[in-house]
Design a protein that fits this description.
The protein is α+β, with helices and mostly antiparallel strands. The protein has a domain at 3-81: Nucleic acid-binding proteins (OB fold (Dihydrolipoamide Acetyltransferase, E2P), Beta Barrel). Helix content is 35%, strand content 24%. The protein is built from seven helices and eight strands. The strands form two sheets. It has a five-stranded mixed beta barrel with strand order 1-2-3-5-4. A three-stranded antiparallel beta sheet has the order 7-6-8. Helix 2 (89-105) runs antiparallel to helix 3 (113-128) and helix 4 (133-147) packs parallel to helix 6 (214-231). The longest helix is centred in the last third of the chain and has 18 residues, at 214-231. It is elongated. The termini are far apart. Bound molecules: zinc ion. The site of zinc ion has 8 residues, from loops.
């Protein structure tokens, strides 16, 4: 028996299959990450070929069978596309990094509506506002880590339990945040200076009075990437940030 499903999703990945088909990975509102085959999507007469492109938000109808790993798409229609992002190399780079995070770290067929909505929202902001794409990406990264269960918190020292209110703050991937005193005697993977601490706090709020220097934002995103490399040893960093 096969079941018919209808949902909306963001196109994360696209791989050619056979002569004219494509296998697409989506992050959907209803089913989380799914992989599905669209037959004939690359044939010149196909209407869905262009629709099933990176970053597009589409509505799909697909058939699933328990005996099959890959589902079959029967219909696809375009809901949102991000023209500005696709024509701006800087925006495109960070938008690809967003979907790379999802493709790499979200769980197959696990519904996560907040993550879905948050991702569509950040892509819309990248497309429609003049905000620095790197800033939006850094904010998204903080949100993403929290949503997948790896929230980075600096509220209290992982060793002595004291509340942390000021920098410098040490960070050890194994244990967590360390106060100024405890960080002296522990191996550290990262140090939050006062500026980085202020920035990190501001990223989690709507505060816009903080100095969003590119240099500091890049320091933070590199730290988040390293953290994921520590928790997932086979992960070697975000390709989108290396190649563009
Ligand atoms: Zn301490």
């Amino acid at each position: 028996m096969s079941e018919i499903h209808k949902c909306e999703g963001i196109v994360l990945k696209k791989v050619n299959y056979g002569d004219s088909s494509v296998i697409i990975t989506f992050f959907t509102d209803e089913f989380g990450k799914i992989t599905a085959l669209k037959k004939g999507a690359r044939s010149p007469r196909s209407k869905t070929g262009n629709i099933l492109d990176y970053l597009n938000v589409v509505q799909i109808v697909f058939y699933s069978k328990q005996t099959r790993d890959v589902q079959l798409i029967s219909q696809a229609s375009l809901l949102k596309h991000f023209t500005v992002i696709k024509n701006d190399l800087e925006k495109y780079k960070y938008a690809l990094a967003v979907i790379e995070l999802l493709e790499r770290f979200s769980v197959e067929e696990e519904k996560h509506e907040r993550l879905y909505k948050g991702t569509v929202r950040i892509l819309e902001l990248m497309d429609k506002t003049a905000s620095l794409p790197l800033l939006l990406f850094t904010k998204y990264f903080v949100f993403f880590l929290k949503e997948i269960g790896y929230e980075i918190t600096l509220a209290e020292c992982a060793k002595c339990g004291a509340p942390i209110t000021k920098a410098p703050i040490g960070y050890n991937f194994e244990t967590g945040a360390l106060c100024e005193k405890c960080m002296q005697s522990q191996p550290l993977d990262f140090i939050f200076t006062q500026e980085l601490y202020e920035l990190f706090k501001a990223l989690r709020t709507k505060d816009s009075s903080v100095d969003y220097s590119e240099f500091r934002l890049k320091k933070l995103t590199a730290f988040f990437e390293k953290f994921l490399m520590y928790t997932h040893t086979e992960f070697k960093g975000l390709r989108s940030l290396k190649f563009y």
